[in-house]
Amino acid sequence: MTDPVIAAATSQITTCRATGHVPVVRTFFDDPTFTATHVVHDPATMACAIVDSVMDYDPASGRTDHAMAQEIVDYVTAEKLKVEWLLETHVHADHLSAAPWLQERLGGRLGIGESIIRVQDIFGKMFNAGTRFARDGSQFDRLFSDGTRFMLGSLPAIALHVPGHTPADMAYVIGDAAFIGDTLFMPDYGTARADFPGGDARTLYHSIRRLLSLPDETRVFLCHDYKAPGRDEYAWETTIGAERRDNVHVHDGVDEDAFVKMRTARDATLSLPNLIMPSVQVNMRGGHLPEPEDNGISYIKIPVSGS
Ligand SMILES: [Fe+2]
């Protein structure tokens, strides 16, 4: 059974490694939300993409801040990079995106997976977002589907649809580097949760097996790290080979049913991320705050329920 998208990504990775035409990746780690933002660039043209940026947010006061995003602006400016893409792997539930703020300062096009429309529908209803909230992905400049090819400067890139954590998760393979969002984490930590609305452990397993069929030497960049027990440093880069061999949840040999059983049992023990309410309401709008009310102020809603 050949998967044409994986075959295309494999040939891209192999060619880029053989010719040495590979991207440079610099990662900025946001400790409060355990998020890794990757700035990936083509050394031949200095074109860059910013993958999964973070806007700081204090939930007690409702104040946003851009210290983390400013570090990215400073780096891009100092290195004389030209931002072509601001890529989101999915609608994050644990941090707010800084993509529009960065786009205003640095340019570039904002991209996410085309199934964002499904996620906007789910969360639009959940937060009773009303008719002013467009559920057609129009907050983004580009909606990627599985197998969409694009360029980063002179580097070839391909988007992969890897649902399971959410219905719209994407991975972006740029040159020989795969930015895989919330699918796999470091081998010693395992995999992403699959219990958010629209998430599904069985679907996640299939997405992960697709990723694991990329070449072993593929460089893999993660969206999060939480330090596995016994490890003191944050880590966000590994390889497909290391994940296949060592991933504690899904190394070679773990079958679908065993994974689903483990993932479902583990998800039942996890609490919701601290920033889920603001994150989802901002990120479903492409990183924009909700439309201000008639007093000019934006509000984040919290649906309240009793037992
Ligand atoms: Fe996530």
Automatic annotation (TrEMBL):
Keyword rRNA-binding: no
SUPFAM superfamilies referenced in this protein's UniProt entry, alphabetically: Metallo-hydrolase/oxidoreductase
GO molecular function, one term: sulfur dioxygenase activity
InterPro entries: Metallo-B-lactamas, Mito_Persulfide_Diox, POD-like_MBL-fold, RibonucZ/Hydroxyglut_hydro
EC numbers for this chain: 3.-.-.-
Domain of life of the source: Bacteria
Coiled-coil residues: none
Keywords tagged on the record: Hydrolase, Metal-binding
GO biological process: glutathione metabolic process; hydrogen sulfide metabolic process
Chain ranges of the Metallo-beta-lactamase domain: 34-224
PANTHER family assigned: PERSULFIDE DIOXYGENASE ETHE1, PERSULFIDE DIOXYGENASE ETHE1, MITOCHONDRIAL
Protein name: Metallo-hydrolase
Species the sequence originates in: Komagataeibacter europaeus (Gluconacetobacter europaeus)
